[in-house]
Amino acid sequence: MQLTHEHQELYRTVRSFVIDELNPHVAEWEKAGMFPAHEVMKKMGDLGLLGITKPTQYGGLGLDYSYEVVFAQALGHCSCGGLPMAIGVQTDMATPALARFGSHELRKQYLEPAIKGEMVVSIAVSEAGAGSDVANIKTTARRDGDDYVINGSKMWITNGTQSDWACMLVNTSDGKPHLNKSLIVVPMDAKGIDRKTKLDKLGMRASDTAMIFLDEVRVPARNLIGQEGMGFTYQMLQFQEERLFGAASGIDGLLNLISETIAYTGQRQAFSQAILDNQYVHFRLAELRTEVEALKALVYQTTDDYLSGKHSPEHIAMLASMCKLKVGRVSREVTDACLQFWGGQGYMWDNPVARAYRDTRLVSIGGGADEVMLGIICKMMGTLPGKKKFEQARAAQAARSA
């Protein structure tokens, strides 16, 4: 991925915003368990940062996804993980399907104010019994005249106590699990919604996360995104950009953590020498830096392949899953090693390496666990158990039919 002057200017703008507007408040927001989402999103909307790839017709910049990757990478300079995650929900998780498949009226009503930062949004897919197993969600939406009536619950919803609307995945029929789901824009002030339960998390503490209960919630049928029954497909398409965004947003934070660890171990003394002067320590930091650079190269290559239009959706899904897997594994490796080198100081709650250790642990779970990513990669490689026999049987059946 070749970075142009425009890419570099965007990166500088976002990095400056993070350093000047977000980082000074992180400690306060971490203790509060949430950040002022409307205030932050409005500032970002005023800078044109919430609709980089969205249509210009609705206030977006209409740029290709390489600019969103640069945006995500610059967010990595935030001194906590919760804010980049919450912002990513607004830009790359809750709004892509609406931007692609929503009606003009729906996009004017909900997408445009989200791009301006006038509305905060959530993606509501996961449930207590259906995290990575999206097909297993139980929340239903039955048609009643000009409305859908929604019943069920959603779990681990980022921005959930503050959002104005949610892009919600629901079952709209009793059909097959991959064909009975729809995405619906659900206003979060609708009667029958209870979202008072703010969850107490190990990390990502500056970002509010809610459990949402829905009891006979009426939503206009016109709030359906695209076609009924296509929700699972739309959500899978959203996942590719979500995973790329998540991988890109991890890069610079890990590089900064390595640099901070070099500085700390360079001045910390033990047994009459700096910790950094031990060969194991500086060799290990070199290995970690190499791993992060490999992650960056994979993210950039995936972005190039995605934008080229020359590759199959399966190829892009495999690479995006590799990016997601790699950022989770590398984040765990880097934060664990750096915390070790910080010693007792690294174990203190407010230490930046301790915060990174807690925050990045979610990366291997949220948005599809590592094991799910491995399954997708194996499927695309043709190495799932029984897959070869199945394909041989299908080929034999086709030959007999011919």
From TrEMBL:
Acyl-CoA oxidase/dehydrogenase middle domain ranges (all copies): 123-217
InterPro entries xrefs: Acyl-CoA_dehydrogenase, Acyl-CoA_DH_CS, Acyl-CoA_Oxase/DH_mid-dom, Acyl-CoA_Oxase/DH_mid-dom_sf, AcylCo_DH-like_C, AcylCo_DH/oxidase_C, AcylCoA_DH/ox_N, AcylCoA_DH/ox_N_sf
Domain Acyl-CoA dehydrogenase/oxidase N-terminal, first and last residues per copy: 4-118
Record-level GO cellular component terms: cytoplasm
An annotated GO BP: fatty acid beta-oxidation using acyl-CoA dehydrogenase
Domain Acyl-CoA dehydrogenase/oxidase C-terminal: 229-380
ATP-binding among keywords: no
Cofactor(s) listed: FAD
Keyword Oxidoreductase annotated: yes
GO MF term set: acyl-CoA dehydrogenase activity; flavin adenine dinucleotide binding
Assigned keywords, A-Z: FAD, Flavoprotein, Oxidoreductase
PANTHER family in alphabetical order: ACYL-COA DEHYDROGENASE 6, MEDIUM-CHAIN SPECIFIC ACYL-COA DEHYDROGENASE, MITOCHONDRIAL-RELATED
Family, as annotated: Belongs to the acyl-CoA dehydrogenase family.
UniProt-recorded name of the protein: Acyl-CoA dehydrogenase
Source organism: Solimonas terrae
High-level lineage: Bacteria, Pseudomonadati, Pseudomonadota, Gammaproteobacteria, Nevskiales
